[in-house]
Design goal:
It is a single chain. The chain is an all-alpha fold and about 150 residues long. Helix content is about 80%, strand content about 0%. The protein is built from four helices and no strands. The radius of gyration is 21 Å and the shape is elongated. The termini are far apart.
């Protein structure tokens, strides 16, 4: 199975929904934006939890040694970067009804492009959060190993 570019994706959607059935295609894209928004909320919640927990236990963990301190700072920076990506990328609020590129097909292609861009930003934010949480967990592991 191959990944389609926006032009081929639109052609595929037309073959599924029918050549003149723009309303259903538009609805599908609207739902894709809603799915992306919901998943982005979950990631942002994880970022918030990470920052909140660090506020309570971070100073004690960081005080256990240089490695813990550096790993915690790296983890926090990566988690915060993840949140920033989400806020300026995936959560960028623009209504899809405001886009008009001349023809309906051109407008749909533009909306598919925006969806693809936001999906890429979401994936970057997810990878940043995973790396941040990994670093944060490493700092906690070092803390636990040094306080035994």
């Amino acid at each position: 199975m191959k990944r389609l570019n926006p032009v081929d994706e639109l052609a595929n959607l037309k073959s599924i929904y029918g050549e003149g059935n723009h309303a259903d295609i538009y609805g599908l894209l609207r739902d894709a934006f809603a799915t992306l928004q919901a998943r982005s909320h979950v990631l942002l919640s994880l970022v918030t939890i990470c920052l909140t927990i660090t506020g309570f236990s971070g100073p004690k963990v960081a005080a256990s040694g240089e490695i813990s301190k550096v790993a915690m700072v790296i983890g926090l920076c990566l988690a915060l970067s993840s949140g920033g990506c989400l806020l300026v990328g995936a959560f960028d609020l623009h209504w899809i009804t405001r886009y008009s590129a001349g023809s309906v097909d051109d407008s749909l292609l533009h909306i598919i492009g925006i969806r693809n861009r936001r999906t890429r930003i979401y994936r970057i934010a997810m990878l940043l959060l995973i790396a941040g949480l990994t670093s944060y967990v490493a700092s906690v592991v070092v803390y636990m190993l040094t306080t035994l």
